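Q: What residues go here?
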């Protein structure tokens, strides 16, 4: 609460804005978003293979993610898509973004051949900048 010191007992209205509550609310919102933002992820939940490879540099915009679930279904973000329609759905999105990077998340239970089939469809369609998403391998594991 704001008050005046050193003036007469004039009970006039103060025209000053007290910004302390505003700053408090903004700091709380900042902390909430800092905690919640890393928890947001795109695509479906898959059990990723582990790798000790260095991570790709992080970009500002959201990446375009393809996922292959354990039962072999291919997803574009969270939408199931047939592999034959993959390129025709991806190319307009990639052209509008001005970026050709696609990240592929494959469940560790998916056969390697199925992952290669999706990569082949992407390559034949002109999508050549594909990053494979993995989890960081634990120290001391195999």
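A:
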């Amino acid at each position: 609460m704001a008050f005046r010191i050193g003036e007469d007992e004039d009970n006039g209205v103060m025209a000053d804005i007290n910004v302390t509550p505003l700053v408090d609310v903004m700091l709380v919102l900042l902390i909430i978003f800092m905690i919640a933002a890393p928890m947001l992820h795109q695509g479906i939940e898959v059990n990723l293979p582990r790798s000790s490879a260095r991570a790709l540099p992080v970009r500002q915009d959201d990446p375009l993610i393809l996922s292959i679930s354990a039962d072999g279904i291919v997803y574009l973000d969270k939408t199931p898509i047939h592999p034959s329609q993959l390129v025709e759905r991806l190319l307009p999105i990639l052209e509008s973004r001005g970026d050709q990077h696609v990240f592929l998340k494959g469940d560790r239970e998916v056969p390697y051949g199925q992952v290669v089939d999706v990569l082949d469809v992407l390559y034949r369609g002109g999508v050549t900048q594909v990053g494979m998403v993995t989890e960081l391998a634990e120290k001391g594991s195999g």
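A: Context that may help when evaluating the design: Strands lie at 50-51, 64-68, 74-76, 79-80, 101-106, 129-132, 135-136. The CA atoms of residues 47 and 107 lie 5 Å apart.
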